[in-house]
Amino acid sequence: MVRSIVVAVALASGAFAGFAVKAQQGAPGAPAAVPQITIPTRWLVTFELGPKFDATKRLQEQTGFMEHVTAIKKLADDGALLVGGPLLETFESHKPTGAAWIVDAPDVEAVKKLVATDPWVTGELAKVQSVRAFFAGTGAWLPGAKAPAKPAGGDAKGH
Amino acid sequence: MSRSWITGIAVASCVSLLAFAPFARQDAKPGAAPHPMALAPTAWVITFELAKWDTSKSPGEQPGFSEHMANCQKLSKEGTLLVGGPFLDEKDPTKPSGAMMIVKAENAEAARKLVSTDTLVTKDLMKIASVRPFMAGAGAWVPSAAAPAPGGSKK
After folding, report:
1. Domain B36-136: which topology?
2. Residues 89-148 of A with CB under 8 A from B
3. pTM over 0.80
């Protein structure tokens, strides 16, 4: 467990070291060298509520809820949707104000294709608000990072 | 009268014990790591915009960057930082154009507090742009949605 975290750290630092090298190469005024980026790029997609979203109803009562869930599940099973869920007004009111997804896709066009498999997007219950390239550097949910060690368990003693 | 009262309490406690028993068993799965979402089902999506970040320099050259990385690793290890990283510039993906963190916190204040001690924020290299309540319902990285097979590698 400890080792996998160390590997994750090493990967993250490696990516940043990569940044540094590329940044130097691509110094201002340098001839147009096409940057070759191999770091795994993900995308943060945010959604706002679309015109067909009925704010008087709960999420589960919206048109095509089951089809939406099925589509989301497929994206997750395919490994394309890494994290997804509604953004809420407050946890108390539980009123959705939109949604956020982290997706794995080679480019913006592919992101749009993935998003279009959700019937809530095609059915105008949700509308894409922004798509931003995102590099997932750290976090307990990243592959390789494990859940926090139990207090009594063998935590970091060195390798 | 007092006897029936005692009996009432006894019955009530038995019933309540029975009622709680299944939940207790669910929580205490032997050998299972504590479920991050089970402990606090409240996550927050926090976005940051660049402020005094020097775009002519690499991330490693920004003041307080190594402290920032150490802080992120610490929060990640604690299980409070679920996913975090930079947004990349569309034209030059070697450069960050902001950042995003999904954190676990009791409320908005706690979420804000959690990230406001990061050196990049204290040094004003980046600013908190938004803090929004988020319910991670699905996704290959979300523990509740993870495949039951242990150690299944995902790319």
Report:
1. Alpha-Beta Plaits (3.30.70)
2. 89-91, 97, 100-102, 104, 132-143, 145-148
3. no
